[in-house]
Amino acid sequence: MQQQKQHLVRHALIVAAITALTACGGGGGSADSGTPATKAPVVTLVRGTAASGAPFAGATVTLTDVNGTQKTTTAGADGGYSIDVKGMTAPFVVTATGTTGGITATYVAVLADTVSDGETKTVNVTPLTTAIAALLSDANNPLDMTDLAKLKAKATPAEVKKVVDALKSVLANVVTASGADAATFDPVKSAFKADRTGLDAVLDTIKVAITSDGVVLVNAFAPIAENQADPTAAPAPSVVLTRGNVATPPGALVAPTIAPSTVVINRLQEQLNACFALAADNRVTKTGPIVTDLKGACEVVDGFDRALYKYNGYTLFQWYGGLLSDPAMDGAIFGAPEILTLVKTAAGAEQAIIRLPYKRADGSTGHVMDMAQKISPATATDSGWRIIGNQLDYDVAVEARFSRGNNPANNGKIAYQSGLRLQFNAIGLAFDVHQVKVTGPGLPAAGVVLARSSSCGTANYFAVANKTGDLSVTATSNVSTSFALSGAFADGSSYTWSSSSPNFASAPVTDFSAFKPFGRYKFEVYRSASDKKAEFYTRSIAAPIAASYGPSLHGRSWVTAPRHILILPMQRLRYWCRPPSTGAVAHWHRMWTMC
Fold it and tell me: Which is deepest, 148, 195, 469, 521, by most CB within 10 Å?
């Protein structure tokens, strides 16, 4: 998590003005010209920190001026970078591309100010500066600022100030709580250190989502109600900024109610790295393909509560067995765990949804999502936080999905589709389940019903059966778990909506502003139409976005593989049904899971 970052953030560069010295003779004698002093070269710099809370170490940082002159460097281990901009012309756009939190991403920053000879200007490149760039764009696309015409037209000092002032207004309470001065705070220009105060604490606290409807800012340290605690609980505290409201921004986010510096899982990053420094055979004990115990440095990892742990019905060894026994994870390096949001249970316990990012020895990246809880009071040597899983009995998930592809039936035209993926795995306690109803944001009020697919051989695969809430269904010939919300062709032509399909909303969703991060979805599990076995809630980390936003997504990155591929035990990497070929179908060649 960002709380355990071990990076040093940029020190200020002091540029001294050096004048030539002339030696003078004494005693009334004539001046001795001596050897003239050499003038120090004039240094004109843009420098700053590329970070998302954790440093964007190794990121490729590119600065481009309004004339297209471009310079590139690499961010240091602390995320710091420095570029000589002598002779270049404002406004500038800075991009930082690399891997952070197990995800490949690009952050953007804009500087409208001129940098005079001998001057140094600070330009941080973070999710907050990316939000500013997005709000300068008519399409909410921060990468629009890399278009020189748009950079010149939009990144004027007055426009940038208006957006920065709006962001400062919305974040005022969060900035004050961090110990910084809200009046002088500037996400782009403020110097900060990685001491979990000031801008660093703000980056820990605020999660940024750039959507088709604007920039969503979520306070991760103002706990939301636990999934099971209160069906009417409000979502995570958030504010939406748009091009239309930056002049009169909405009210400020509430201050964090739990300090980021107190949410710490003891030595977890260090211990995980020691564990995965071992070869797979030296990390675990197995009976056949099943992990039964830990070995060596893995055995002493104490950030998990082994007895209490349960994630979607799995034990600790079942849930992490795939990673632990995978030789491809030999030498993997785990980054600082990230707190996505905090949760308060009905009993008042503090929980955190966390992401554990890692980078494999071959350079590929991934992450694990999990849940931690403060299970004991903090002491001088123990924070009291442990990873315990989500405590659900069933393997379920709701994920925002976004597809880009071409359909041979439509002359290969590029199309975009936005929707939700509804997952229910027929294992464990689900052996006698035949119907599952899912309700929540974007789904019909009556609910989407999942049933066992008759096209999948063993019928152990649940697919969408109907969108009417009809529980009389006992099986479905369908194989899809997706529920489409909107679609759009890249060329703007009319998109044919399959309103009669159970996998499509009755009409395309046109207003996505109601979707918020950490949306809450209800699962009702039935043995039969009249025999409800269980009822519980889960959350979708990301909110879906409109398909019409697709053309502006070029260059944006999300996780490119479903979460379960990354973290399920090897013996059940995917509960996947591949139906027999039935002829030409739409070919979706790229899909993102947004989390």
Answer: 521
